[in-house]
Amino acid sequence: MALYVPTFTIAAASILNHSIQHQPKTSLQLHFSKPISRNHFSVPHNATQHQKYVYPDPIPEFAVAETKKFKAELLKKLSKEKEILGDELDDVVSVCAEIFNEFLHKEYGGPGTLLVEPFTDMMVALKDRKLSGASSAARASLLWAQNYVDQDWETWNSKHLS
Prior knowledge:
This protein is mainly α and 162 residues long. The protein contains seven helices and two strands. Helix 3 (60-78) packs antiparallel against helix 7, helix 5 packs antiparallel against helix 6 and helix 6 (117-128) crosses helix 7.
């Protein structure tokens, strides 16, 4: 099946416009002069291929260093909530740090790869173990990670890969 496209010159378009404006009841008939194949409207093959960005693999040394920093900062943050966490503070921080460490070792490949799942996993694990302050610990962990992990990754790579 061929497609037909109307061809107009500027003069014809002007006459058509004048005709439509001054005689609104006139019916418009278009005559198609050239058949156009479907390929005329196709997008070039290389324009349809999506560029896929591949994130770097996790860096174990970064994961160890960042987990150590995370654990120290989380302990400091959550120690202000001693009345909620009580004697479970160290256990709560250990669970969060373990999950965070696993995420950094297996999935984190730099900015754009920080996921929410490890933090929900923290909350679930803390609740499963019946430890106090699960939501506070998970929230504090997420906020810390959002504020520092991508920045620390950039700093790490600028020092270690230069």
